[in-house]
Amino acid sequence: LLNQHYQQTFKGKLVMRFDDTNPAKEEGHFEKAILSDLQLMGVKANKYSHTSEYFDQIIQLGEQLIRQGDAFADDTDAETQKEERLQLKNSRRRDNSLEQNLSWWREMLAGSEQGKKCCVRAKIDMQSMNGAMRDPTIFRCKSEPHVRTGTKYKAYPTYDFACPIVDHLEGVTHALRTTEYHDRDDQYYWFTEKLDIRTVSPSDPTVHFPHLYEYSRLALQHTLLSKRKLAWFVDQGRVDG
Asked: Which family does it belong to (predicted)?
């Protein structure tokens, strides 16, 4: 509703995008329910899309980061990665050779046993006081089939990596994000800088898009909005869908 308000006020275009970057959490009937609810509320987008439509371009740009030396493949287990982030400690894989990184990257794309042990991490700043900048994961392997792409892909981008790329590809100039993304704004702009995908305003070369705007998320009492919690009611048969 807030996006549509600004779109109508400034006579812009509204993009309705499903960020389906995690096949383990995507189900077709969720999308149908969301679209039905939007219709009920009178929200009409100019464009409907899925992040999965851009997987090929996102993978290409992920490899570009690796070749630039701005990302590396890491087979460190998730718990150790978490501890190292808290300790501001570099991964032992951070200074892999380009050949090693590309080798493991290909294993990830193939979904091999070695590939499943790895992730790709952006090489940003493990000493940063912003935890979102401590070499975040940008690709990981998922064995579940994707609701739209099936088993075509084995390595999937994270939302944080895919979002600025798809915003660029879809010509987004203004993105509204709730305040829990605040710490990740620096990461968003780091990706746009390293991939050279910031857009210059045709009317003013000093203005760059996209602009990120924050707003507080809506909280309602005595009900649940969390998809994870709502899914429990469906799975337990307490509701019919």
From this structure: Belongs to the class-I aminoacyl-tRNA synthetase family.
Q: pTM for the complete prediction?
A: 0.92
Question: What is the rounded CA–CA span in Å between residue 167 and residue 209?
Answer: 10
Category of 42 on φ-ψ map: left (φ > 0), alpha (ψ -120 to 50) or beta: left
**Which letter, b or e, does each residue of 135-165 get, where b requires 16 or more Cβ atoms within 10 Å of its Cβ?**
bbbbbbbbeeebbbeeeebbbbbbebbbbbb
For the stretch 196-211, pLDDT in tens is 998 888 888 888 889 9
The CATH number of domain 52-240 is 3.40.50.620? yes
Cβ(13)–Cβ(7) below 8 Å: yes
pLDDT tens readout for residues 130-168: 999 999 999 999 999 999 999 999 999 999 999 999 999
Contacts of 21 (CB under 8 A, 6+ apart): 51, 52, 156, 157, 158, 159, 162
Bridge-based pairing state of the strands 174-178 and 199-200: unpaired
Taking the C-alpha atoms of residue 233 and residue 241, their distance in angstroms, rounded to an integer, is: 9
